[in-house]
Amino acid sequence: MKLFDSELKVMSVLWREGDSTAKHVSDILKDEVGWNINTTYTVIKKCIKKGAIERVEPNFLCRALVSKEQVQASETDELIDRIYDGSADMLFASLLSRKALSKEQIGKLKRIVEEGK
After folding, report:
1. Which residues, 6 or more positions from 75, have their beta carbon under 8 angstroms from its beta carbon?
2. pTM over 0.85
């Protein structure tokens, strides 16, 4: 499932807040990004159509049907395929060459590699 930036903003609210009314999501996004209620409702409806959100009555309650981890995994897979020709090690090397890591971060990465995750 491909979610665009605007849809990710809505999903982020639901992942952070849990099940919420569309009005509550709209109020949060008005404060965070300046959206009006119509913009938020339009994006919520797009997410419903994609199967990312379920609408539950009463009160237009929104429930996330995909987890943040699922979306992150999907987006990461797409990035690896599209930009790095399917090579996760090239992505990893690119990331490491751009930012200095602490000994703790390096140790954590070593453990992840050793565990095969």
Report:
1. none
2. no
Amino acid at position 35, single letter: W
Instruction: State the number of CA atoms in the 13 A half-sphere of 49 facing the CB.
Output: 9
Q: Looking at per-residue confidence, does 97 or 24 come out higher?
A: 24
> What pLDDT is recorded for position 58?
87
Alpha-carbon distance of 57 to 16, in angstroms, equals 21
Rounded Cα distance, 116 and 69, in Å? 18
No. of helices (H) and no. of strands (E), the chain: 6, 3
Query: How far, in Å, CA of 113 to CA of 105, rounded?
Result: 12
Beta bridge partners of 21: 61
In sequence order, the 6+-apart residues with CB closer than 8 A to the CB of 10 are 25, 29, 40, 43, 44, 47, 53, 62
What's the pLDDT score for residue 18?
A: 97
Residue 55: beta bridge partners?
A: 62
Q: Are the CB atoms for 73 and 61 separated by under 8 Å?
A: no
